[in-house]
Specification:
The complex is a heterodimer of chains A (about 575) and B (about 80). Chain A is built from 21 helices and 22 strands. Chain A is α/β, with parallel strands linked by helices. Chain A has three domains: about 150 residues, Nucleotidyltransferase, domain 5; about 150 residues, Nucleotidyltransferase, domain 5, CATH 3.30.420; about 220 residues, Alpha-Beta Complex (DHBP synthase), CATH 3.90.870.20. In chain A, the strands form five sheets. An eight-stranded mixed beta sheet of chain A has the order 13-22-21-14-15-20-16-19, sandwiched between helices. Chain A has a five-stranded mixed beta sheet with strand order 3-2-1-4-5. In chain A, a hairpin with a 6-residue loop joins strand 1 and strand 2. Chain A is globular. Chain B has one domain. Chain B has about 80 residues and is mostly helical. At the A-B interface, helix 3, helix 4, strand 5, strand 7 and strand 8 of A face helix 1 and strand 1 of B.
Chain lengths: ~575, ~80
């Protein structure tokens, strides 16, 4: 039985394919269209899903969509009715897309895919919850789904057991922890639905002390938090419920200045605001989780929704709440709901037993060695070939140890926003200049943003002050932990200003080649850690095809690209026609 | 022949752009009417009778609402609402 799941038209469109209860393919549309956070109907991803199993649309038994469009439309109309006449501008700009595509999704699916069978519509937060719980290692777990907004819900909790989920309570729009985070992201001059994680990184530079940080007290004015973790936003500080902006003038006044212009300097005030926001987010999250624990009496917690990407808070959950075990899927945001839809249809609606655990994120397209060779030969690209895996690992480890920046392109592309070792740029974390090197040669990103370390799972506790046992979501780079003090100076390029690191852990069975490379590097450096950053230039999605990877390398200052068994040196090749640097933008 | 093809291509693009502009203008006019009459009148009437469409102002002891969302009959999932 094949089931397709679709998520689109808000942000991060994606699709997933389930075969007899097992997720066999999933990807975000942005990887194919090369438009970051592409929201359009994921036709390219759907075609990839079908092609990956050599099937056609006739073989699909069910298709599911990640929300109830009419319920969402009802909420949008309610906003306009409540905020008349202030919402005139957004009404005019948003209605055409609602009328032309969003409420006509059934027609679109049937027409674009030539599909004739049934389409299921799953509530947005149920799709989030299912996308995490039904593919998790837990038989029973408490579930918390927090994001910006779905239909009406912004936060929901419940319990999952076997193949059933019950979402018990919710907090409704316009109060939203996700939208509070996005509003401050906008206030600090960063892009909403894209740069929230930058605020999380920036917060470490601010005063992480509730008493001393002046903006903590001020920001507490915008949110009424109850002991049970429920909260309500004071909407006089926001305009997102009727305008195409987020912070109100009153919020600007409260925070002592206007919205920061994107190109302007980040001051200590901005950093303190980011820190205050992160502290408030954590306070609400831990209160909710403690309440959820009391209500469910379950020791396992699943976090779903876009807020599940707040890896700084995730790393503190087990220390600050009664829960003993934590899990989140590689893409807890909207992208991950396509998986949720397929699993919910198979396990819950059709009442089939759960038979799949999502142990790695390698669900995207892969390119056989013959097709990579064909691409290299066709484009007259100079390359050499490693004779075997052993030589590949040895030579690559030496290149990284010699402070070279290496593009690493192997196997199936990762699902979710993180590069986890198949579409990564790797570098030496022991080199104190690696951060500047990567920024000047490839990434061109804000100086305050740290680079992430990847460590073999069996070595993680030696270098990081993690929970014991190390939680599984570290495999998906979803948790930040302090780096042990004695190692901070030895791996300066992955040590954030507060001594933390957003580690990725890797097990041999997940990716033997990647695991082997890290172990080989440790033979040279004495430290089994590498810098792992996503294989892209700023403003572009992570690379998908050999063409994307080669173009990215040639347009930047990356030294080498290793695609399957092939080693490509940038300097050996003619650069002009491949220059992608000019496209780099945030 | 090539010049003619070029001319028709340009002409086609021009007509499309003209059509797009016309549809934008008509959309704006129609949506403005819908907003002012449909949304506006409903909103004003509702406000007179104290009806609110968003829960913005009320303070409570807890902001949790009952949801009780669980497995439903299969027909419920065919619906978009």
């Amino acid at each position: 039985m094949y089931i397709l799941g679709i998520s689109c038209y808000y942000h991060d469109a994606s699709a997933a394919l389930l075969k007899d209860g097992v997720v066999v393919a999933a990807a975000a549309e942005e990887r194919f269209t090369r438009k970051k956070h592409d929201v359009s109907f994921p036709i390219n991803t759907l075609n990839y899903c079908l092609k990956s199993q050599n099937i056609s649309i006739k073989d699909i038994d069910y298709i599911g969509f990640y929300e109830k469009p009419f319920l969402k439309f009802e909420r949008v109309l309610s906003q306009h009715l409540e905020m008349f006449p202030l919402s005139f501008k957004t009404f005019i700009s948003s209605m055409p897309s609602w009328i032309n595509e969003k409420i006509r999704i059934t027609n679109t699916i049937k027409k674009k895919l030539k599909y004739k069978k049934d389409i299921f519509f799953i509530e947005h937060h149920m799709a989030h919850a299912a996308g995490s719980f039904l593919v998790s290692p837990f038989k029973k777990a408490a579930i918390l789904a927090i994001d910006g907004v779905g239909e009406w819900t912004t936060t929901a909790y419940g319990i999952g057991e076997d193949n059933k989920i019950n979402l018990m309570k919710e907090i409704r729009f316009p109060s939203s922890l996700g939208l509070l985070y996005s509003t401050i992201t906008a206030y600090l001059g960063f892009e909403v639905n894209n740069s929230e994680y930058k605020i999380m990184g920036l917060s470490a530079y601010g005063l992480m002390n509730k008493e001393k940080n002046p903006y903590h007290k001020k920001l507490k004015e915008v949110i009424d938090i109850k002991d049970d973790g429920s909260y309500k936003l004071n909407m006089s500080y926001f305009v997102y419920h009727f305008a195409d902006r987020m912070p109100s003038k009153k919020l600007c006044k409260l925070l002592d200045g206007p919205v920061r212009k994107p190109e302007s300097k980040l001051t200590q005030r901005h950093k303190d605001i980011a820190a205050a926001l992160q502290m408030i987010y954590e306070e609400v999250l831990f209160k909710i989780l403690s309440y959820v624990y009391n209500e469910t009496k379950c020791e396992n917690i699943i976090l779903a929704g876009g807020c599940g990407l707040n890896s700084v808070a995730n790393g503190k959950i087990l220390k600050n709440t009664p829960f003993k075990h934590f899990w989140a899927q590689p893409d807890p945001g909207d992208g991950g709901t396509s998986i949720g839809v397929t699993s919910y249809i198979y396990n819950t609606i059709l009442n089939k037993k759960r038979n799949f655990i999502l142990k790695d994120a390698f669900l995207g397209p892969e390119f056989p060695i013959e097709s990579i060779k064909k691409f290299l030969d066709k484009n007259n690209i100079q390359y050499s070939k490693f004779k075997d895996e052993k030589e590949l690992i040895k030579k690559t480890a030496k290149l990284i140890y010699d402070n070279k920046v290496v593009g690493w392109f192997h196997g199936k592309m990762e699902f979710g926003p993180r590069a986890l070792g198949n579409r990564s740029i790797l570098s030496n974390p022991c080199n104190p200049k690696a951060r500047e090197l990567l920024n000047s040669k490839v990434k061109h990103r804000e100086k305050f943003r740290p680079f992430a370390p990847v460590v073999c799972k069996d070595d993680a506790l030696k270098y990081f002050d993690c929970d014991k046992p190390v939680p599984e979501p570290t495999d998906f780079m979803l948790m930040v932990y302090p780096i042990r003090k004695e190692w901070r100076k030895k791996i300066p390029s992955v040590t954030h200003v507060d001594g933390s690191g957003r580690l990725q852990t890797i097990k041999r069975e997940q990716n033997p080649l990647y695991y082997g490379l890290i172990k080989e590097f440790s033979k040279l450096s004495g430290i089994p850690i590498l810098i792992n950053t996503s294989f892209n230039i700023m403003g572009e999605p992570i690379v998908c095809t050999p063409y994307d990877a080669y173009k990215c390398m040639m347009g930047t200052g990356m030294d080498y690209l290793i695609m399957d068994r092939f080693l490509i040196k940038r300097r050996d090749n003619y650069q002009d026609m491949w220059n992608s640097e000019k496209y780099a933008k945030d | 022949m090539r010049k003619l093809k070029h001319f028709f291509n340009g002409f086609q693009k021009g007509v499309k752009s003209f059509g797009d502009n016309i549809s934008t203008i008509i959309n704006f006019i129609l949506l403005s009417i819908v907003y002012l009459i449909g949304v506006g009148l409903t909103s004003i009437t509702a406000k007179i009778f104290g009806k609110h469409f968003l829960d913005i102002k009320k303070k409570k002891g807890s902001y949790w609402y009952d949801l009780n969302l669980k497995n439903k009959s299969i027909k419920e999932y065919y619906r978009q609402f």
